[in-house]
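Q: What does the predicted 3D structure of Mannitol-1-phosphate 5-dehydrogenase look like?
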Amino acid sequence: MSERRPGIVHLGVGAFARAHLAWYTQESSGAPWGITAFTGRSPDMAEALAAQDCRYTLVTRAASGDEAEVLDVVLAAHPGSDDGAWRRVVASPATSIVTLTVTENGYRSGSDVAARLVAGLDARRAAGAGRIALVSLDNLTHNGQVLREAVLGAVTDDELRTWIASNVAFPSSMVDRITPATTEADVDGLADLPGALPEDRIPVVTEPFAEWVLEDAFAGIDRPAWETAGVRIVEDVTPYEQRKLWLLNGSHSLLAYLGLQLGHETVASAMADPVCRTAVEQLWDEAALELPLPEPEVREARAALVDRFANPRIRHTLRQIASSGSEKLPVRVVDVLRHRLDRDPAAGIGPGAATAIAAWWLHITGQPELVNDHGAPGPDSDVHDVLRVIAPDLDTTPVVAAITAAADRIRTARSAADRTTSDEGVPA
């Protein structure tokens, strides 16, 4: 029988939650907390966890090698279809936190996520179980506010709406830890890895870096002492959301589109290319000018990203990152440009942003077989079509000229890379 308090309910249990939320919770000092996990739709992970008493191996993959530890913070795992268990656990007085990793689609109108949360909260109100926090761990700006709006939008009972307003907190959070999909080779490799759970079929592989910035909005609500494990508790998460979006996510998109143009497959490979690295540094220079954070902190974040991106043993594919550019570029790249122009209308578009947008343009027109983006313009699009999708108000002569020039530079670099590949017989 575990001594952990079953105080956290998590919806959407997957690799990221098991490498991030679970790890931080297990590493926290003080009274030990546990997690009751629910899957989204498929019952597979609940069944797999239950078969191992909810224990699994976390493999931290550094450039120098792997380290393994066994996490036992998950106390029980249920399929998402178990509505009775969901209502019972959310209504329990022992529960004070519900966390979610349900992807962006889980917050959209018509998703069953909000309805499930409302059902759980209604059961909690009926049980008189007191205040509770709902914490999104998804990569959304102001995710606490987004979650609150999704939940309230699914409430049809005015009395329940009033109860939620008084008893439910929706702290925003920023989370970060690259967690690639576990492969059969990863599973097989556990046999030779000290510290791994014997015969583990569901290990999680992750990078050494982890970050969690959490809004301090837990008045009257118990939570683990996450700050003892490195979680930063702050009044406003917004600057840290911007730092992640503009530095990490923005450069990921740039590396994806530019790297694919130059024949690369992974982030590590693209980051080792001087053409890509220069463009990333330019994008970071532009973002740094707009971030409302101390310069040393921004500099430290950039240095950490260089190390993370260069880790050759974390296989983060560019094709995966390249999806949904029509949704990602406005918040990862264009938002920085808007701040830049608001601060100095004469500044124009920087070379980093111009290269990112130009690379996306060349990606959708020159590599249509790789495009996974319902909002993208077609393969015969020009630069005006591209701007119409991500920044229609910026379709000006100077911006168009800068993006067109950046596209020409990418074509030149691509031709040089093609010649090198032809001459040497290996990718540049």
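A (community wiki): The structure tokens above were generated from the sequence. The two ends are 56 Å apart (CA to CA). The chain is about 50% helix and 15% strand.
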